[in-house]
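Continuing the series of single-chain predictions for the mutant panel. This is the parent chain; the variants come on the following pages.
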Amino acid sequence: MNVTSEYARAGMALVPIPQGQKRPVTKGWNKRKNVITDPEQASELVGNIGLAHVYSTSPTMALDLDDMARAEPWLAARGIDVNALLEADDAVQIVSGRVGRAKLLYRLPSGLAPLESLTIKETVLVNGEERQVTVIEFRCATRDGLTLQDVLPPSIHPDTGQ
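Parent structure:
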């Protein structure tokens, strides 16, 4: 038995991703008919794998903290202690090895429909030029209800090799 079949047994819908990449390349990968939920099929996956949030038995979502220095005060202003989330005993965290970033996975409460994803950006000055940077992403579904995905261990991040 391998980890990919265990993911499928736990109700996670999976998406194949080529080794060394973090995005699927198959056309229509984000449609229900193209995800893998069968443990036997899942055990045959090679390369990296993604979690298809919308199509998991209990839909999931990712809290993707792309800029911890900016995410922490943004969440704190809304009464959320990001460090408590990261340090919780039941936290499911994906670690890419990229400094100043974190990602937490959550199952949505029973009966709650998949959530349209939301990206929080801030304008910053970079070399005297204003740029938009992504601070936080709440990742689950597209506006049209298709799934988004996040790469699961034991996948290897293409930039960090972790």
